[in-house]
Amino acid sequence: MASRAEPSGPSARGGGGAGLLPPLLVLFAAAALIPRGDGQNLVTEDVTVVEGEVATISCRVKNSDDSVIQLLNPNRQTIYFRDFRPLKDSRFQLVNFSNSELRVSLTNVSISDEGRYFCQLYTDPPQEIYTTITVLVPPRNLVIDIQKEIAVEGEEIELNCTAMASRPATTIRWFKGNKELTGKSEVEQWSDMYTVTSQLFLKVGREDDGVPVICLVDHPAVKDLQTQRYLEVMYKPQVRVSQNYPVQGLTREGEPLELTCAAFGKPQPTDMRWLRVDDEMPQHVVVSGSNLLISNLNKTDNGTYRCEASNAVGKSHADYMLFVYDPPTTIPPPTTTTTTTTTIPTTITDTTATTEPAVHGFTQLPNSAEELDYGDLSGAPILLYGSTEALPTVQLNSRAGEEGSIRTVDHAVVGGVVAVVVFAMLCLLIILGRYFARHKGTYFTHEAKGADDAADADTAIINAEGGQNNSEEKKEYFI
Q: Model's pTM, two decimal places?
Protein backbone atom coordinates (compact mmCIF):
# COMPACT_ATOMS: atom_id res chain seq x y z
CA MET A 1 0.00 0.00 0.00
CA ALA A 2 1.48 3.32 -1.03
CA SER A 3 1.26 6.04 1.56
CA ARG A 4 3.08 9.26 1.89
CA ALA A 5 3.13 11.93 4.59
CA GLU A 6 3.08 15.56 3.53
CA PRO A 7 3.89 18.31 6.08
CA SER A 8 1.39 21.14 6.23
CA GLY A 9 0.22 23.85 8.60
CA PRO A 10 2.00 26.86 10.07
CA SER A 11 5.29 25.10 10.67
CA ALA A 12 5.48 24.33 6.99
CA ARG A 13 4.95 27.94 6.12
CA GLY A 14 7.50 29.35 8.58
CA GLY A 15 7.29 30.83 12.06
CA GLY A 16 4.21 32.97 11.35
CA GLY A 17 4.41 36.20 13.48
CA ALA A 18 7.03 34.93 15.95
CA GLY A 19 9.52 37.49 14.67
CA LEU A 20 7.38 40.33 16.17
CA LEU A 21 7.49 38.95 19.73
CA PRO A 22 10.06 39.98 22.33
CA PRO A 23 12.87 37.48 22.70
CA LEU A 24 11.51 36.07 25.97
CA LEU A 25 8.08 35.57 24.54
CA VAL A 26 9.70 33.97 21.56
CA LEU A 27 11.37 31.49 23.87
CA PHE A 28 8.10 30.60 25.59
CA ALA A 29 6.30 30.41 22.27
CA ALA A 30 8.93 28.03 20.90
CA ALA A 31 8.50 25.81 23.95
CA ALA A 32 4.76 25.82 23.47
CA LEU A 33 5.11 24.88 19.78
CA ILE A 34 7.23 21.78 20.41
CA PRO A 35 5.31 19.01 18.53
CA ARG A 36 3.33 16.94 20.97
CA GLY A 37 2.79 14.31 18.30
CA ASP A 38 6.46 13.49 18.24
CA GLY A 39 6.82 9.75 17.74
CA GLN A 40 3.26 9.34 16.42
CA ASN A 41 2.61 7.62 13.05
CA LEU A 42 -0.38 8.04 10.77
CA VAL A 43 -1.19 4.88 8.77
CA THR A 44 -3.63 4.04 5.92
CA GLU A 45 -3.89 1.70 2.89
CA ASP A 46 -4.91 2.00 -0.75
CA VAL A 47 -8.35 0.69 -1.66
CA THR A 48 -9.44 -1.22 -4.80
CA VAL A 49 -13.17 -1.65 -5.27
CA VAL A 50 -15.53 -2.85 -8.01
CA GLU A 51 -17.94 -0.27 -9.34
CA GLY A 52 -21.18 -0.28 -7.38
CA GLU A 53 -19.68 -1.90 -4.28
CA VAL A 54 -18.49 -0.41 -0.95
CA ALA A 55 -15.06 1.14 -0.32
CA THR A 56 -13.75 1.51 3.24
CA ILE A 57 -11.13 4.16 4.15
CA SER A 58 -9.24 3.82 7.43
CA CYS A 59 -7.03 6.47 9.08
CA ARG A 60 -5.14 4.99 12.06
CA VAL A 61 -2.77 6.53 14.59
CA LYS A 62 0.00 4.74 16.43
CA ASN A 63 0.94 6.07 19.91
CA SER A 64 -2.12 8.32 19.95
CA ASP A 65 -2.32 11.32 22.36
CA ASP A 66 -5.92 12.25 21.59
CA SER A 67 -5.02 14.43 18.63
CA VAL A 68 -7.78 15.23 16.12
CA ILE A 69 -8.12 13.01 13.02
CA GLN A 70 -9.63 14.38 9.79
CA LEU A 71 -10.53 12.81 6.39
CA LEU A 72 -10.59 14.84 3.14
CA ASN A 73 -11.72 13.98 -0.41
CA PRO A 74 -9.62 14.46 -3.61
CA ASN A 75 -10.93 18.07 -3.81
CA ARG A 76 -9.63 18.71 -0.27
CA GLN A 77 -13.14 18.92 1.13
CA THR A 78 -13.53 17.63 4.68
CA ILE A 79 -15.52 14.44 4.76
CA TYR A 80 -15.23 13.81 8.51
CA PHE A 81 -13.72 15.90 11.28
CA ARG A 82 -13.49 13.55 14.22
CA ASP A 83 -17.01 12.01 14.19
CA PHE A 84 -18.68 15.00 12.50
CA ARG A 85 -19.49 14.96 8.74
CA PRO A 86 -19.44 18.43 7.20
CA LEU A 87 -19.79 17.10 3.62
CA LYS A 88 -23.38 16.59 2.61
CA ASP A 89 -22.94 13.20 0.86
CA SER A 90 -24.93 10.45 2.49
CA ARG A 91 -22.91 7.76 0.76
CA PHE A 92 -20.15 8.40 3.33
CA GLN A 93 -20.91 6.70 6.63
CA LEU A 94 -18.90 6.57 9.85
CA VAL A 95 -17.89 3.02 10.63
CA ASN A 96 -15.61 3.60 13.64
CA PHE A 97 -14.22 6.57 15.54
CA SER A 98 -11.72 6.60 18.41
CA ASN A 99 -8.57 8.38 19.49
CA SER A 100 -6.58 6.00 17.32
CA GLU A 101 -8.80 5.42 14.23
CA LEU A 102 -11.25 7.08 11.91
CA ARG A 103 -12.96 4.57 9.57
CA VAL A 104 -15.41 5.69 6.89
CA SER A 105 -17.33 3.67 4.24
CA LEU A 106 -18.32 4.82 0.77
CA THR A 107 -21.25 2.98 -0.79
CA ASN A 108 -22.20 2.61 -4.46
CA VAL A 109 -18.75 3.56 -5.69
CA SER A 110 -18.50 4.98 -9.19
CA ILE A 111 -15.70 6.02 -11.52
CA SER A 112 -16.06 9.62 -10.31
CA ASP A 113 -15.09 8.53 -6.78
CA GLU A 114 -11.67 7.38 -7.92
CA GLY A 115 -8.64 9.42 -6.67
CA ARG A 116 -6.60 10.37 -3.57
CA TYR A 117 -8.20 10.72 -0.12
CA PHE A 118 -6.21 12.45 2.65
CA CYS A 119 -5.88 11.54 6.34
CA GLN A 120 -4.70 14.42 8.61
CA LEU A 121 -3.60 14.36 12.23
CA TYR A 122 -3.67 17.71 14.03
CA THR A 123 -0.35 17.65 15.81
CA ASP A 124 2.34 20.29 15.71
CA PRO A 125 3.45 20.07 13.02
CA PRO A 126 0.36 18.39 11.52
CA GLN A 127 0.77 14.99 9.79
CA GLU A 128 -0.88 14.02 6.53
CA ILE A 129 -0.90 10.87 4.35
CA TYR A 130 -3.10 9.85 1.41
CA THR A 131 -4.81 6.68 0.22
CA THR A 132 -5.85 5.96 -3.36
CA ILE A 133 -9.21 4.50 -4.33
CA THR A 134 -9.15 2.50 -7.59
CA VAL A 135 -12.47 1.58 -9.18
CA LEU A 136 -12.70 -1.59 -11.31
CA VAL A 137 -15.34 -1.90 -14.02
CA PRO A 138 -16.21 -5.40 -15.30
CA PRO A 139 -17.14 -5.91 -18.97
CA ARG A 140 -20.62 -4.64 -19.69
CA ASN A 141 -21.33 -7.32 -22.25
CA LEU A 142 -19.65 -10.48 -23.55
CA VAL A 143 -20.75 -11.68 -26.98
CA ILE A 144 -19.58 -14.38 -29.43
CA ASP A 145 -20.29 -13.78 -33.08
CA ILE A 146 -19.88 -16.67 -35.60
CA GLN A 147 -19.36 -15.88 -39.27
CA LYS A 148 -21.43 -18.93 -40.40
CA GLU A 149 -24.11 -20.42 -38.19
CA ILE A 150 -23.93 -23.77 -40.04
CA ALA A 151 -20.55 -24.88 -41.36
CA VAL A 152 -19.59 -27.71 -43.69
CA GLU A 153 -16.94 -30.26 -42.79
CA GLY A 154 -13.47 -29.00 -43.77
CA GLU A 155 -14.39 -25.30 -43.82
CA GLU A 156 -12.58 -22.60 -41.83
CA ILE A 157 -14.90 -20.32 -39.90
CA GLU A 158 -14.30 -17.02 -38.09
CA LEU A 159 -15.45 -16.35 -34.52
CA ASN A 160 -15.28 -13.02 -32.65
CA CYS A 161 -15.68 -12.44 -28.93
CA THR A 162 -16.19 -8.87 -27.66
CA ALA A 163 -15.89 -7.62 -24.05
CA MET A 164 -17.26 -4.06 -23.88
CA ALA A 165 -16.60 -1.13 -21.49
CA SER A 166 -14.26 -2.62 -18.96
CA ARG A 167 -11.63 -1.04 -16.73
CA PRO A 168 -8.84 -2.01 -16.96
CA ALA A 169 -8.70 -3.76 -20.36
CA THR A 170 -9.71 -7.41 -20.14
CA THR A 171 -7.92 -10.54 -21.41
CA ILE A 172 -9.91 -13.00 -23.56
CA ARG A 173 -9.17 -16.75 -23.79
CA TRP A 174 -10.69 -19.32 -26.19
CA PHE A 175 -11.62 -22.95 -25.55
CA LYS A 176 -13.08 -25.67 -27.80
CA GLY A 177 -14.42 -28.20 -25.35
CA ASN A 178 -11.51 -28.64 -22.90
CA LYS A 179 -8.82 -27.63 -25.39
CA GLU A 180 -7.52 -24.05 -25.24
CA LEU A 181 -7.09 -22.22 -28.55
CA THR A 182 -5.20 -19.06 -29.48
CA GLY A 183 -6.95 -15.96 -30.80
CA LYS A 184 -5.85 -12.46 -31.79
CA SER A 185 -7.03 -9.52 -29.61
CA GLU A 186 -7.50 -5.81 -30.32
CA VAL A 187 -8.07 -3.11 -27.63
CA GLU A 188 -10.02 0.14 -28.10
CA GLN A 189 -10.19 2.88 -25.44
CA TRP A 190 -13.21 5.13 -24.96
CA SER A 191 -12.60 7.76 -22.28
CA ASP A 192 -11.68 5.70 -19.20
CA MET A 193 -13.17 2.46 -20.58
CA TYR A 194 -11.72 -0.28 -22.79
CA THR A 195 -13.35 -2.56 -25.36
CA VAL A 196 -11.50 -5.75 -26.31
CA THR A 197 -12.27 -7.93 -29.35
CA SER A 198 -10.63 -11.33 -29.90
CA GLN A 199 -10.71 -13.07 -33.30
CA LEU A 200 -10.41 -16.85 -33.78
CA PHE A 201 -10.14 -18.86 -37.02
CA LEU A 202 -11.22 -22.50 -36.67
CA LYS A 203 -11.23 -25.34 -39.23
CA VAL A 204 -14.14 -27.62 -38.38
CA GLY A 205 -14.72 -31.33 -38.90
CA ARG A 206 -17.50 -33.79 -38.19
CA GLU A 207 -16.14 -34.36 -34.69
CA ASP A 208 -16.80 -30.66 -33.90
CA ASP A 209 -20.54 -30.91 -34.43
CA GLY A 210 -22.29 -30.06 -31.15
CA VAL A 211 -19.02 -29.07 -29.40
CA PRO A 212 -19.15 -25.76 -27.44
CA VAL A 213 -16.73 -22.93 -28.25
CA ILE A 214 -16.14 -20.89 -25.07
CA CYS A 215 -15.02 -17.26 -24.71
CA LEU A 216 -13.56 -16.74 -21.20
CA VAL A 217 -12.66 -13.36 -19.62
CA ASP A 218 -9.74 -12.75 -17.26
CA HIS A 219 -10.44 -9.54 -15.30
CA PRO A 220 -9.79 -8.50 -11.68
CA ALA A 221 -13.38 -7.30 -11.27
CA VAL A 222 -15.04 -10.57 -12.17
CA LYS A 223 -14.39 -14.32 -11.94
CA ASP A 224 -15.50 -17.07 -14.34
CA LEU A 225 -17.21 -14.70 -16.73
CA GLN A 226 -17.73 -16.61 -19.98
CA THR A 227 -20.08 -17.21 -22.86
CA GLN A 228 -20.29 -20.05 -25.36
CA ARG A 229 -21.73 -21.08 -28.70
CA TYR A 230 -22.30 -24.61 -29.98
CA LEU A 231 -20.88 -25.48 -33.38
CA GLU A 232 -23.17 -26.94 -36.02
CA VAL A 233 -21.26 -28.86 -38.69
CA MET A 234 -22.71 -30.72 -41.68
CA TYR A 235 -20.80 -33.73 -43.01
CA LYS A 236 -21.20 -36.48 -45.61
CA PRO A 237 -22.37 -39.99 -44.60
CA GLN A 238 -20.27 -42.49 -42.75
CA VAL A 239 -21.15 -45.99 -44.09
CA ARG A 240 -20.65 -49.41 -42.43
CA VAL A 241 -21.55 -52.91 -43.72
CA SER A 242 -22.21 -55.73 -41.24
CA GLN A 243 -22.81 -59.46 -41.81
CA ASN A 244 -25.97 -60.70 -40.11
CA TYR A 245 -25.78 -64.31 -41.32
CA PRO A 246 -23.77 -66.45 -41.05
CA VAL A 247 -22.69 -64.90 -37.77
CA GLN A 248 -18.87 -64.78 -37.77
CA GLY A 249 -18.85 -67.90 -39.96
CA LEU A 250 -17.55 -68.94 -43.34
CA THR A 251 -19.67 -68.20 -46.37
CA ARG A 252 -20.07 -71.69 -47.90
CA GLU A 253 -21.63 -72.78 -51.12
CA GLY A 254 -25.34 -73.57 -50.79
CA GLU A 255 -25.77 -71.49 -47.61
CA PRO A 256 -27.53 -68.08 -47.28
CA LEU A 257 -25.86 -64.68 -46.77
CA GLU A 258 -27.45 -61.55 -45.28
CA LEU A 259 -25.74 -58.11 -45.17
CA THR A 260 -26.93 -54.86 -43.58
CA CYS A 261 -25.77 -51.35 -44.49
CA ALA A 262 -25.85 -48.54 -41.88
CA ALA A 263 -25.13 -44.88 -42.72
CA PHE A 264 -24.85 -41.82 -40.46
CA GLY A 265 -24.44 -38.21 -41.57
CA LYS A 266 -25.69 -34.66 -41.17
CA PRO A 267 -28.20 -34.30 -42.64
CA GLN A 268 -29.22 -37.95 -42.35
CA PRO A 269 -28.67 -39.85 -45.67
CA THR A 270 -31.81 -40.36 -47.71
CA ASP A 271 -30.40 -42.29 -50.68
CA MET A 272 -28.85 -45.76 -50.11
CA ARG A 273 -28.17 -48.42 -52.75
CA TRP A 274 -26.27 -51.71 -53.28
CA LEU A 275 -24.10 -52.53 -56.28
CA ARG A 276 -21.47 -55.04 -57.32
CA VAL A 277 -18.06 -53.58 -58.11
CA ASP A 278 -16.79 -54.26 -61.66
CA ASP A 279 -19.67 -56.64 -62.41
CA GLU A 280 -23.43 -56.88 -62.61
CA MET A 281 -25.51 -57.78 -59.60
CA PRO A 282 -26.58 -61.48 -59.76
CA GLN A 283 -30.28 -61.94 -60.53
CA HIS A 284 -30.90 -64.13 -57.48
CA VAL A 285 -29.69 -61.39 -55.10
CA VAL A 286 -32.54 -59.72 -53.19
CA VAL A 287 -32.06 -56.08 -52.07
CA SER A 288 -34.56 -54.65 -49.58
CA GLY A 289 -33.71 -51.15 -48.42
CA SER A 290 -30.45 -51.36 -46.52
CA ASN A 291 -30.39 -55.20 -46.56
CA LEU A 292 -28.89 -57.56 -49.16
CA LEU A 293 -29.83 -61.27 -49.18
CA ILE A 294 -28.43 -64.24 -51.14
CA SER A 295 -30.41 -67.36 -50.26
CA ASN A 296 -28.18 -69.92 -52.01
CA LEU A 297 -24.51 -69.03 -52.41
CA ASN A 298 -22.41 -70.34 -55.28
CA LYS A 299 -18.96 -69.66 -56.66
CA THR A 300 -20.28 -67.20 -59.25
CA ASP A 301 -21.28 -64.84 -56.40
CA ASN A 302 -17.63 -64.15 -55.52
CA GLY A 303 -16.78 -60.45 -55.73
CA THR A 304 -17.00 -57.07 -53.98
CA TYR A 305 -20.40 -55.69 -52.96
CA ARG A 306 -20.66 -51.96 -52.23
CA CYS A 307 -23.20 -49.94 -50.25
CA GLU A 308 -23.42 -46.26 -51.23
CA ALA A 309 -25.14 -43.48 -49.25
CA SER A 310 -25.46 -39.78 -50.02
CA ASN A 311 -26.83 -36.56 -48.54
CA ALA A 312 -26.66 -32.84 -49.33
CA VAL A 313 -22.95 -32.70 -48.44
CA GLY A 314 -21.63 -35.65 -50.45
CA LYS A 315 -21.47 -39.40 -51.07
CA SER A 316 -19.67 -42.22 -49.22
CA HIS A 317 -19.48 -46.01 -49.52
CA ALA A 318 -18.36 -49.17 -47.75
CA ASP A 319 -17.30 -52.46 -49.44
CA TYR A 320 -17.82 -56.13 -48.54
CA MET A 321 -15.62 -58.73 -50.24
CA LEU A 322 -17.40 -62.09 -50.67
CA PHE A 323 -15.55 -65.37 -51.12
CA VAL A 324 -17.64 -68.54 -51.29
CA TYR A 325 -15.99 -71.65 -49.82
CA ASP A 326 -16.70 -75.31 -50.65
CA PRO A 327 -19.62 -76.91 -48.80
CA PRO A 328 -18.80 -79.15 -45.82
CA THR A 329 -18.21 -82.90 -46.61
CA THR A 330 -21.03 -85.30 -45.61
CA ILE A 331 -19.65 -88.18 -43.46
CA PRO A 332 -21.62 -91.47 -42.80
CA PRO A 333 -22.34 -92.51 -39.19
CA PRO A 334 -19.67 -94.51 -37.33
CA THR A 335 -19.72 -98.36 -37.21
CA THR A 336 -18.25 -100.96 -34.82
CA THR A 337 -14.75 -102.21 -35.63
CA THR A 338 -14.39 -106.05 -35.82
CA THR A 339 -11.43 -108.36 -36.39
CA THR A 340 -11.60 -111.66 -38.39
CA THR A 341 -8.84 -114.30 -38.48
CA THR A 342 -8.67 -116.66 -41.50
CA THR A 343 -6.33 -119.64 -41.99
CA ILE A 344 -5.15 -120.05 -45.56
CA PRO A 345 -4.08 -123.61 -46.63
CA THR A 346 -1.41 -123.75 -49.33
CA THR A 347 -0.55 -126.88 -51.40
CA ILE A 348 2.87 -127.22 -53.01
CA THR A 349 3.20 -129.83 -55.80
CA ASP A 350 6.58 -131.28 -56.71
CA THR A 351 6.59 -130.89 -60.45
CA THR A 352 8.96 -129.47 -62.97
CA ALA A 353 6.25 -128.07 -65.18
CA THR A 354 4.94 -125.49 -62.63
CA THR A 355 6.95 -122.55 -61.32
CA GLU A 356 4.22 -120.52 -59.55
CA PRO A 357 2.39 -121.46 -56.35
CA ALA A 358 -1.34 -121.90 -56.22
CA VAL A 359 -3.40 -118.93 -55.01
CA HIS A 360 -6.73 -119.38 -53.19
CA GLY A 361 -9.33 -116.74 -52.38
CA PHE A 362 -7.34 -113.58 -53.37
CA THR A 363 -9.09 -110.30 -52.59
CA GLN A 364 -7.89 -107.18 -54.40
CA LEU A 365 -6.64 -104.32 -52.16
CA PRO A 366 -8.25 -100.87 -52.41
CA ASN A 367 -6.80 -98.49 -54.99
CA SER A 368 -7.05 -95.20 -53.03
CA ALA A 369 -7.70 -93.62 -49.67
CA GLU A 370 -11.24 -92.75 -50.81
CA GLU A 371 -12.05 -96.43 -51.26
CA LEU A 372 -10.77 -97.07 -47.76
CA ASP A 373 -12.90 -94.24 -46.37
CA TYR A 374 -16.19 -94.98 -48.10
CA GLY A 375 -15.95 -98.61 -49.37
CA ASP A 376 -17.76 -101.44 -47.68
CA LEU A 377 -15.05 -103.93 -46.62
CA SER A 378 -17.14 -105.52 -43.90
CA GLY A 379 -16.06 -109.10 -43.25
CA ALA A 380 -13.87 -109.40 -46.38
CA PRO A 381 -10.60 -111.21 -45.63
CA ILE A 382 -7.37 -110.06 -47.25
CA LEU A 383 -5.47 -113.12 -48.55
CA LEU A 384 -1.83 -113.06 -49.49
CA TYR A 385 0.07 -115.15 -52.03
CA GLY A 386 1.27 -118.45 -50.55
CA SER A 387 0.71 -117.40 -46.98
CA THR A 388 0.38 -120.12 -44.35
CA GLU A 389 -0.33 -117.62 -41.58
CA ALA A 390 -3.66 -116.03 -40.82
CA LEU A 391 -3.86 -112.20 -41.14
CA PRO A 392 -6.57 -110.16 -39.41
CA THR A 393 -9.10 -108.37 -41.56
CA VAL A 394 -10.38 -105.05 -40.15
CA GLN A 395 -13.71 -103.61 -41.11
CA LEU A 396 -12.97 -99.90 -41.73
CA ASN A 397 -14.82 -97.11 -40.06
CA SER A 398 -15.76 -94.64 -42.78
CA ARG A 399 -16.13 -91.83 -40.21
CA ALA A 400 -12.77 -92.44 -38.61
CA GLY A 401 -11.39 -89.48 -40.49
CA GLU A 402 -8.06 -88.88 -42.04
CA GLU A 403 -6.08 -90.57 -39.25
CA GLY A 404 -7.95 -93.91 -39.56
CA SER A 405 -7.57 -93.89 -43.36
CA ILE A 406 -3.81 -93.47 -43.16
CA ARG A 407 -3.56 -96.31 -40.61
CA THR A 408 -5.55 -98.70 -42.88
CA VAL A 409 -3.38 -97.89 -45.89
CA ASP A 410 -0.31 -98.71 -43.82
CA HIS A 411 -1.72 -102.19 -42.99
CA ALA A 412 -2.40 -102.90 -46.66
CA VAL A 413 1.12 -101.94 -47.64
CA VAL A 414 2.60 -104.16 -44.94
CA GLY A 415 0.42 -107.09 -46.11
CA GLY A 416 1.52 -106.61 -49.70
CA VAL A 417 5.18 -106.61 -48.71
CA VAL A 418 4.74 -109.83 -46.70
CA ALA A 419 2.99 -111.49 -49.68
CA VAL A 420 5.85 -110.59 -52.00
CA VAL A 421 8.43 -111.99 -49.55
CA VAL A 422 6.52 -115.29 -49.12
CA PHE A 423 6.12 -115.61 -52.89
CA ALA A 424 9.84 -115.11 -53.41
CA MET A 425 10.68 -117.74 -50.78
CA LEU A 426 8.35 -120.29 -52.45
CA CYS A 427 9.98 -119.70 -55.81
CA LEU A 428 13.40 -120.18 -54.28
CA LEU A 429 12.34 -123.49 -52.66
CA ILE A 430 11.04 -124.81 -56.00
CA ILE A 431 14.26 -123.92 -57.81
CA LEU A 432 16.41 -125.54 -55.12
CA GLY A 433 14.26 -128.73 -55.19
CA ARG A 434 14.70 -129.16 -58.92
CA TYR A 435 18.42 -128.49 -58.68
CA PHE A 436 18.97 -131.15 -56.04
CA ALA A 437 16.77 -133.64 -57.90
CA ARG A 438 18.86 -133.39 -61.06
CA HIS A 439 22.14 -133.82 -59.21
CA LYS A 440 20.81 -136.93 -57.43
CA GLY A 441 20.07 -138.72 -60.78
CA THR A 442 23.55 -138.02 -62.03
CA TYR A 443 25.04 -139.57 -58.89
CA PHE A 444 23.12 -142.85 -59.41
CA THR A 445 24.12 -143.17 -63.12
CA HIS A 446 27.75 -143.04 -62.15
CA GLU A 447 27.70 -145.90 -59.60
CA ALA A 448 28.85 -148.54 -62.22
CA LYS A 449 32.25 -147.23 -62.94
CA GLY A 450 34.30 -149.06 -65.61
CA ALA A 451 31.32 -149.98 -67.80
CA ASP A 452 31.62 -147.15 -70.23
CA ASP A 453 32.63 -149.50 -73.11
CA ALA A 454 29.50 -151.70 -72.87
CA ALA A 455 27.13 -151.72 -75.79
CA ASP A 456 24.11 -151.23 -73.57
CA ALA A 457 23.20 -150.79 -69.94
CA ASP A 458 22.60 -154.46 -69.23
CA THR A 459 25.97 -155.39 -70.57
CA ALA A 460 27.62 -152.68 -68.56
CA ILE A 461 26.04 -153.95 -65.37
CA ILE A 462 27.09 -157.50 -66.05
CA ASN A 463 30.60 -156.43 -66.86
CA ALA A 464 30.86 -154.21 -63.82
CA GLU A 465 29.49 -156.69 -61.30
CA GLY A 466 30.86 -159.83 -62.88
CA GLY A 467 27.73 -161.75 -63.71
CA GLN A 468 24.07 -161.79 -64.70
CA ASN A 469 22.82 -162.80 -61.30
CA ASN A 470 23.16 -159.44 -59.69
CA SER A 471 21.98 -157.42 -62.66
CA GLU A 472 18.42 -157.13 -61.39
CA GLU A 473 19.54 -155.90 -58.02
CA LYS A 474 21.64 -153.11 -59.48
CA LYS A 475 18.95 -151.55 -61.61
CA GLU A 476 17.40 -148.21 -60.62
CA TYR A 477 14.58 -146.44 -62.23
CA PHE A 478 13.98 -142.75 -62.43
CA ILE A 479 10.55 -141.78 -61.62
A: 0.56
